[in-house]
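Data card: per-record layout.
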Amino acid sequence: MPKVSRSKAVEARLKERVKELTCLYAIEQLAAKPGVALDDVLMGIAEIARRGWQYPEITTVRIRLDNRSYTTRKFREGTHCQSAEVDISGTRRGSVDVFYTKRRPILDEGPFLKEERKLIDAVAGQVAVIVQRREAEQEQANLQNQLRHADRLATIGQLTAGIAHELNEPLAGILGFAQLAHGCAGVPKEAKADLERIMAASLRAREIMKKLLLFSRQQTPEKTSADLNQVVEEGIYIFRARCAKEGIELDLSLDPKLPRITADPAQLMQVLVNLVVNAIQAMPDGGRLSVTTRAGPAHVALVVEDTGTGMAPDVIEKLFVPFFTTKDVGEGTGLGLPVAHGIVIAHGGTITVDSTPGEGTVFEVRLPLSNDAIGAKGN
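The structure for this 379-residue chain is written out next.
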C-alpha cells in the first residue's frame, strides 16, 4: 500500500507539472499570434493561467497592469491568494493574482504548491516580457511614422521653396507694371480700379510666397534676446475684442519667472497668431481659450488650448502639410500651421498637438534655452 500511495503522489505531481508547462506554452502561443490586441492577450493569459493551478474549478485569476484589470470570467476574490509582481524595466507596473474561492488544505504556501510559486512568477515574467515587447513595437512604429512625416515635410519644403522662388520673379513684374500703369496720367477710373485689384492680389500672392518660404525654412530667423511673455501679451491684445464678441473666455497664464530666449520675436508672434486663430475658428459657438507659458529644464513652452470641435487622428496627421485644411473655401489657405511648424523647427524647437473630437485641442510649442540661460537657472 505505501508503494501504491507513493506512486500516486508522484503521478499527481507529474500531472501538475504537465499542467504548468502546458499553461506556459499556451501563453507563449497566444502572445505570438499576430494582430491580437494587448488587452485581449492579457484576458487570454488570465484564462489560460487558471487551468495551471491545482484546483482550476475554484481558481480565479486577475492580471493588473497600470490601473487596469484583466480577469477570468465570473471573477471574484477568494479565501486564498497568491500574487506576483509584474516588473517592467525595474518599475512595478502591476501584478498577477491567483485566488481559490474555497478553502483548501494548507500545503507549501497556504494551499498553494511550491511549484505554483514558480509558475506564478513565470506567468508574471511572461506578462512583463509581452507588455515590454508590445510597447517597444509601438514606440518603433511611432518613430517610423515621425520619420516618414519628417521626410515628407522636408520634400514638400524643397518643392515649395523652388516654386516660391520661381513665382516671385513674374509676380514682382506683375506688381511693378500694375503700379506703373496705375500712376500713369489719363488712365480711366474703371481701369485704375482694376489695376488696384491686380496690385492687391499680387501683394496677397507675395505674402503667400513668404509663408511658403517660412515653411520651407528658406528665410533665416533674425534672432535676438526675446521675452516670450511679452510676445504673448502683445499678440493676445489684438484678439481680446474678437474673443469677447464671439463668446470666448480668454484665460492668460504667464510664468513670471520665464527666462528670455534667443529667437525672432516677429516669427514667434506669427506662431502665436496662427495657433490662436486656429483655436478661435474651432469654437464657432464660443468656449474657452487658454494661453500659457512655462519654463522647463532646458526650454520654455507656449501652450494654446481650446475647448472647440477637436480633431480626429487622421486630421492631426496632416496638420503640418501645406494647403491641407478642413475649413471652407475662402476661410483658410492651409498654410497657418505648416508655417508655424517651419518657424518652430527653424528655432530648434518642437510643436506637438493633442486633440479629442468634441472636447478640444492643445498645441504645445517648446523652444530651447541658450546654454547661458540653462546655467543661470541651475544657479
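Known properties of this structure: The two ends are 82 Å apart (CA to CA). The first strand starts at residue 59 and ends at 65.

See the next section for split statistics.
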